[in-house]
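Lab notebook page, bench 4
Experiment: in silico fold of construct C2
Operator: M.H.
Input chain length: 275 residues
Purpose: comparison with the prior construct
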Amino acid sequence: MGRRTVFGIVAVAGVVGSVLTPAEAASASCQAPAALIHFDAPLPRLSTALASGEPVDIIALGSSSTQGIGASSPKASYPVRLQAELQQLFPKNKITVENLGIGGQLASDMLPRIRQQVIPRKPTLVIWQTGVNDAMRLVKVETFRDNVIAGLDELKRAGIDVVLLDMQYFPKADKVRDFPRFLVTMRQLAEQRNIPILQRYAIMKHLVTTAQYTPQQLLAADQFHPNDLSYGCLGRMMAEALQVEVTDFTKAMAKRKYPAEAAKQAGNTGPLPVH
């Protein structure tokens, strides 16, 4: 079976056309443009901890697609896969990803949980998955936006790094009123608040439009929740994005600490003055 690697993610050829078994899903992966697996905002607390070998505690906050509905077992949920991927990438760190996903929750339901369950745990990073239930239940986009801002402000005041995770792709998404506006709102909030976002909807749709997989292969029997394959891909892509962020952060810190050496290596040092 042929393999090809794009941006560090291995794709297994020859599996398109039928629903994958759990074993096939575990070995398969996906390709996506590098731009979709790259954060445009820093994660200083996480990057410092990972770069220095410190323990890292991550909380996955969200609804059913964080909880793992649609997976063949809890071990196939994306937080479990993310922990395994990160532990391989950063073997010197003790990494824990705690799953605080509860099916059906709106952003407003998660606000009290941020105060009561998330902040007291003092995590290094929170990955906040939200939006799909608000869109499906016709919550006003403005109300959703205000609730997400309130949650982000709470986490920022607590000094916790945050990554936003937007909605999953599913065939009937384009029939949901305001669904595109929710996606745009999350991207805008990420940009305005200088917070990284992993655009899961765009990634999953790319996998379908490029004929890597069919929606049936990426989704559970209800054709709404992700399955083992898409949870595994999400865990790997999130880990990849975090690894790139740590690498970029480490390089930036090195340039600040040794600016003359960085300039010398770049060939930018000028001649010494003559007296």
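Observations: The two ends are 68 Å apart (CA to CA). The chain has a mean pLDDT of 87.
Next step: discuss at group meeting.
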